[in-house]
């Protein structure tokens, strides 16, 4: 199987597997225990936190470990909104966010009566910061925006929005899941008050992630119990997964420039090969994007059928977010651009790369895709 679905999840790097395996065999103490085994485990958690903090260039005390980006997003959005309802009742997000943001703010609307603005892109799919500015109100307390879209790779104007909000009471949550480990991510550079990410998007294990938070903010915990994570998130730490997260992030940062260039080459090669094959296609590209994601469409070709044929031929791709896999609903991201009745919602596939992919894999993919489309 040739794997081209890295926006959904990435394979573990061999060094990450080794680090996790060694931790599993050598460390089993509860990090909250005061004996030597507990202290050794506590030190591992502390080192992992320092690795993340150093990568983000923030104090380690401002990192909460979570079960992944979905929990981190819920913690930021629900935790802050409920603790600060006296400041206002309005939340802004974009219509192209990940379901872990869209469904969370919808929950805040349905359960607690928050007024939520789901801001759509412009007609051409672009998303300037002015769209957020136009929706700001005196009672806006929270703005949530992804750094890069998981279905199209589109880069959103997080830095510009962060600057905009410096003159407003609203705090800024950035979902950095699709960019962490791929480009430099520093919350302070984009004026983010919260920033979330998940290890399995940068060759770490599933089920572990983190949330950066501005220590000046007051927000509620979601999980109550013990005093772990500075009383922000109760529960015994996922020790071995934290080892994997830290190792994967270290490796990503060591080769961040060369990895990015390798993915750019894969992206360029695939597009060039498609043109050489004279395949009719268009890109769902709406401005500056991460090269890691290509959202392509083939006129009059049903994407579900195409995905199935490619899967049977040994190629793993997708038609959109992995968190909506198995549903029959069209992409909410493309629907926000094209409208819910557009035929374009049935034509797209998502190809997503990592530096572990090769040019040979891209060539084989285009060859098989061409043969399927020309039959």
UniProtKB/TrEMBL annotation:
Residues 246-273 form a coiled coil. Residues 2-365 form the Aminotransferase class V domain. The lineage of its organism: Bacteria, Bacillati, Bacillota, Bacilli, Lactobacillales. Keywords: Aminotransferase, Coiled coil, Iron, Iron-sulfur, Metal-binding, Pyridoxal phosphate, Transferase. Belongs to the class-V pyridoxal-phosphate-dependent aminotransferase family. NifS/IscS subfamily. This is Pyridoxal-phosphate dependent aminotransferase NifS. The gene is nifS. The keyword Coiled coil applies. It catalyses: (sulfur carrier)-H + L-cysteine = (sulfur carrier)-SH + L-alanine.
